[in-house]
Description:
Blueprint: H1 2-23, H2 27-43, E1 51-59, E2 62-63, E3 74-86, E4 91-100, E5 103-114, E6 117-126, H3 129-138, H4 143-146, H5 157-172, E7 181-189, E8 192-193, H6 215-220, E9 229-239, E10 244-253, E11 259-262, E12 266-269, E13 278-289, E14 292-303
Parallel strand pairs: 1-6, 7-14
Antiparallel strand pairs: 1-2, 3-4, 4-5, 5-6, 7-8, 9-10, 10-13, 11-12, 13-14
Amino acid sequence: MRLLAIILATFCALNAQPVKSAASCDRACLEGFVNQYLDAMVARNPYSLPLAPKVKFTENEQVIPLGEGIWGTANGLGTYKLYVSDPQTGQIGFLGTLRENDTPVAIAIRLKIDHRLIREVETIVVRDPGAAQAIEAIGKPDPLLLAPLAASERRSRDELIAIANKYSEGIEHNNGDLIPFDPECNRIQNGTQTTNNPSLKLDPKASWTPMSLGCKDQINTKFFSFVRKIYPRRFLVVDEERGIVFGLFLFHIPGTVTSVDIPGYGAVGIPLPYQAPTTLDIAELYKIRNGKIWKVEALQTNVPYGTPSPFLSEK
């Protein structure tokens, strides 16, 4: 009996180690999954991937079979790749570009890895060649965005999520003072810098543009009052070492606000796409240093107004 017990204990010990190893996936491992996923997509061969039995795949908030949607049209890799890794939860966020039937598109991806198997795939495809080309014109992610933070600049996972959430709170309440912005904060949206950019005008004839302002002051103009609600706010990928939070959001715009009276300037028209009911499907990351948001980088596309997240009930 004692010999049998020893044999059983040895067998269990030997088989426990691979399970533990399979469950762990560090930064390099997670980035490798994204690269493998992109290669399989371009090859249009989802069966080459290590998939969980009930893998869930969405494209622009629609649940479809893995292998359809962008899988049937992607035919080349792009040149821009930005990864946000979270080994603690086995998740990775990605912002980049692809070719869809030879046309440039931008794409955001979230993968959930469980025991070295892909369990969830969430994608946002921005079918706007201009946006994809603007992103690729940047060249590569800002090195400061990916640089590890000094220990004194870091915050805990919960603190990072709380800080990132204040960004949505500030937009909903049209109050930039609610958000802990770094004085050097800028936002990049679909490849275009939309803060501190006086050349970016909503109306070419206008003498002033809200985009000339910094992150806090721009929100304080109440220009974003056309956004009624940001829900859900899903902060899924957190990189404590680099101080980055990657989330997925739905900005609901009823289309009822057509202009904003900005103090000291006057009425400014809201862009036409937002003067009709629509929802923005957004993947957004925040770089946080010393408890302040230093950079925001986002990809967004329009989906029908009121579109819900197919992952909401699971989170």
